[in-house]
Amino acid sequence: xxFVKDMLRMWAHSWKRFISIAMITLLGVAVLTGIYAGCxxxxxxxxxFFDAQGLHDVQVLSTAGLSNGDIAALRKxxxxxxVQAERSQEVTFDLDGRKSATMQEIGTDGIDQPYLQEGxxxxxxxxxxxxxxxxxxxxxxxxxxxxxTPESASSDTSDxxxxxxxxxxxxxxxxxxFPTKLxxxxxxxxxxxxxxPDGYSAMTSFRSTATTDYxxxxxxxxxxxxxxxxxxxxxxxxxAESTFDESYENTVKQVTDRIDGTVKxxxxxxxxxxxxxxxxxxxxxxxxxxDKKFADAQSQIDANRQxxxxxxxxxVSMQAGAAAAGAAANGANAGAAAAAGAxxxxxxxxxxxxxxxxxxxxxxxxxQAKQQLDQAQSQLNEQKAxxxxxxxxxxxxxxxxxxxxxxYVQDRQSLGGFSALKSDLDSIQSLGNAFPIVFLxxxxxxxxxxxxxxxxxxxxxxxxxxxxxxxxxAVASRYLLFALLACLIGGGLGLIAGFLGIPAxxxxxxxxxxxxxxxxxEYDWLYGxxxxxxxxxxxxxxxxxxxxxxxxxxPASLLRPKAPRAGSRILLERLRPVWNRIGFLGKVTARNxxxxxxxxxxxxxxxxxxxxLIVCGLAINDTVADLGxxxxxxxxxxxxxxxxxxSDASAMRTKVASDGRVTSSLDVRIESGDLTVAGSGDGDSGxxxxxxxxxxxxxxxxxxxxxxxxxxxxxxxxSSGILGTSGVGKTGSLKLDDDGVIVAQSAASALGxxxxxxxxxxxxxxxxxxxxxxxVNRNLIGSDVYVSETYYAKLFDSKDAKNTKxxxxxxxxxxxTWNAMLAKLSGSDTSQTDYAESLEEDSxxxxxxSCAHMADSFKFDLMGAVVALIVALAGGLALVVLFTLxxxxxSERVREMATLKVLGFxxxxxxxxxxxxxxxxxxxxxxxxxxxxxxxxxxLTMALxxxxxxxxxxxxxxxxxxxxxxxxxxxxxxxxFVNPVLDRIxxxxxxxxxx
Length: 995
What we know:
Elements: H1 2-13, H2 15-53, E1 58-66, H3 68-75, E2 80-86, E3 88-94, E4 98-105, E5 115-119, E6 127-131, H4 132-138, E7 145-147, E8 149-150, E9 181-189, H5 200-204, E10 214-218, E11 228-235, H6 246-329, H7 334-342, H8 349-362, H9 364-401, E12 407-411, H10 416-457, H11 459-467, H12 472-511, H13 525-551, H14 555-559, H15 576-579, H16 584-595, H17 597-625, H18 627-635, E13 640-643, H19 649-659, E14 662-677, E15 687-688, E16 693-701, H20 709-712, E17 718-720, E18 726-728, E19 741-744, H21 745-751, E20 758-762, E21 768-777, E22 784-788, H22 789-796, E23 820-825, H23 829-840, E24 847-850, H24 851-857, H25 861-891, H26 894-902, H27 907-943, H28 957-983, H29 987-990
Parallel strand pairs: 4-10, 6-9, 12-15, 16-22, 19-21
Antiparallel strand pairs: 1-11, 1-12, 2-11, 3-4, 3-8, 5-9, 6-10, 7-9, 13-23, 13-24, 14-16, 14-20, 14-23, 17-18, 19-22, 20-21
């Protein structure tokens, strides 16, 4: 009992050490669990939402649409739980200019169901549900009416549509068609895109011709057409896995591999054969119809010719009869004359034909009638020959005119909103995995320092207990339980902060970027327990090491005071010119600093670690803060990007040119597509949406203006560097040519692409091709891929573009429609922003982006919030570390301080004597921590692979100053707590001999 009471008194006496260990553990556990818990809560709530709304696991698209036969084949694939055939149609409408939308049929099989946020779901034809983005942009509300116009491109697959593919019908498939007079009855959230319309992505992104501005959801009522635009699938067992885990990806991959391996090839061939059969049937029907028309025309001509011949024959007979009657009148026998007049004279065929020609030639009316009959017959013969030739030509061209059908099998990674959310959370979680390591190392160092001093102070008491027969484990338990209790209390408080405070803070920021219904905070017992256990093990290990170092001595040795360390010279003493000019107290300070190596290492290491954390946080902040300026001021040399629909491209260029604001411009084609790292298989395999995929902006440049690209965009080749840096080549040394594409650094870094790599590109029409990367260009925001007109034609088989390189002008070429313009403008940044806004009101402009506006408005709230959290926690750790080191320093030098007071030092002089050492050690730690922070910051920013973002690490000089100043401020603040402790040192009691 006395042993326990003494232990409790010892604990109460060491309350400062207890608080220090508890605080370090609290901060470490909070960092370890907080960021993880926030990301995990977001992952879990999103996964529940996806399961509830039936977000598809696999989506199948086809360049020729999907038939009922395709849907039936997909249902037979092993591992497919449900298949939903989907119909959609692109439409346009007027909303401060021409806007586009996708009319999406709400599936009846429970897949990709929109989440109702307001109003009700549409049920009747003409009713639609819209997204909140449309409500915000249009100013409309529930009950508002809207009229849309179907785009001509929506029926592009019906030009060569084939048979239904089943035995139930011999008709042809019809493209989907939706009602055009619409009424808004509800506001929904599209589960395929959780982006908050007021968040970061809405501010920095823009739509190009390959996508639409909005999505309208309509019921099946009123939708016609038997051709499906896509098929969505749910995979058996996938719902039981977390959509963000590798196990889910493996489950889905098994099904996509089966589709790629069996169904896809067979159905591609079958669908093309359907199209060929439908084409042949159309030709046969056209031939039968033409033959019928020609037969009717020939019958009419034959009837008219027969009537004409009868008329001529009648005249011939009359003339022959009259001639015979005249001859008989001149004869002698009246009976013979009567007989001759009673019968028609018999003429041979030659005489009759001669008489016909004579009669026709003598009559203008008959001549004209004969010419008309002959002309009609000639024209009919020509038409029959021409039609037959045309049909034969179509038969010969049918196989080449109908391209090979291609399927594209995609998983959830192909959804831009899904991949962006996953990448954001993964990147933030990577910070949560890295920073606790630093906190743990500092916690172990501080615990070792504190507990070693605590054990050393009780040296004689330990010797007494051991001499009285107490076991060494029992004596050591006094300190082990002390450290364990401090860790458990600090860890418990850290769990509260880690699973409640930090996640709540992060989720508030996340909800500003993404809409996540049903979000709630959850506790993970396993992770929380392991988090505390990790720090308990580290601190207890340090405590055990400190106990072993003392208790391995005999009780007799422990009962005697520890012999002072033998004097030794430091390196500075050997530098006589310097050492002789240092004062007495300066020499004492130097000896105290460098002779006690453990104190030096612990203090400098602890301060350096805290400073490094602060620098790291500020490095991320500086890097993010300069992204917009570097991209839109330095890399993008143009001031304005204008994008239009293909049909409005000429009108858009005319509008911009007539305004007189452009000083120079470059016409380009911009499409939204995908870049995938090409595998070992066929580059046209059609599989997209894998983990090695990135959404890109494909920019095609006219062949005659390739050299002008460098005037609009800074072309600098880059190569991978270390510590978050990259080797940047000379400006202007990079040229776009016809041998490959130039890939943006942001996409290349995420996918591990470099010059010479093979990648698979998907253009705006969904056509895929394998391309060579000729260079990687410095780019921080967005994933631009630049391609020449000729290489674009080579990749995507644009037949009209084969000879554009030798054409007179790319403007005259019909190979590509230049639907966008990069332009430099005159005027101030404000006027340029206003001009871009005014252009968006024009009906010919789809989107106008001002680089000046983007540079000023770019921000990254999520990363800013995380950086603020990291800096705050690092500052708290620095304060605790300095407090622990200062108190340990004082406690182990009490006799020294008492001696100084006996020698006549005033309290202020004692303060200066002690604090000067701490300040010098702090400065040394800061000097070491600043480059260390740059190193750690570089490694962390390299790990942040977010969609369309590359973090080019930069630490501003002000950040170094702030980090150093913050650490020094914490050191000065600690002095305010240490000075009273120095004042309370009693020289008499402190200098009493231990014996």
